[in-house]
């Protein structure tokens, strides 16, 4: 998780975003983004997918092994929901 967290942190910084920006875009708290970036806590796959999607980051590109069907389905669903217009 540490390597993935560092990659997400680097992507966030390259995009010029703060942890709060990513939190707002992904619907999680700033503390959750911090935990993910530090790699110190195991993170729910759906939350991880939300944060990755907020950064335009494809989880399957950094996974050591292919994502499970359920994780990939959750990621794809979150990506679709994030593209839908919000009320």
**Number of E strands:** 0
What's the CATH architecture? Orthogonal Bundle
**What would you report as the Rg, rounded to the nearest angstrom?**
12 Å
Largest sheet: none
- Spell out the helices and strands N to C: HHHHH
Query: What integer is the average pLDDT?
Result: 77
Low-confidence stretches: none
Please state roughly what percent of the residues sit in beta strands, choosing from under 5%, 5-15%, 15-25%, 25-35%, 35-45% or over 45%: under 5%
Query: Which class best fits the helix and strand makeup?
Result: mainly alpha
Q: What is the total domain count?
A: 1
| The CATH H-level homologous superfamily | lambda repressor-like DNA-binding domains
What is the terminal-to-terminal distance? 34 Å
Key traits:
Cro/C1-type_HTH; Helix-turn-helix domain-containing protein; 434 Repressor (Amino-terminal Domain); single chain; globular; 87 residues; Lambda_DNA-bd_dom_sf
């Amino acid at each position: 998780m540490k390597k993935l967290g560092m990659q997400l942190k680097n992507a966030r910084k390259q995009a010029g975003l703060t942890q709060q920006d990513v939190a707002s875009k992904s619907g999680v708290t700033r503390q959750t983004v911090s935990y993910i970036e530090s790699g110190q806590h195991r993170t729910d796959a759906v939350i991880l997918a939300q944060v990755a999607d907020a950064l335009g980051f494809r989880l399957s590109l950094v996974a050591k092994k292919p994502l499970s069907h359920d994780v990939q389905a959750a990621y794809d669903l979150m990506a679709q929901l994030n593209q839908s217009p919000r009320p």
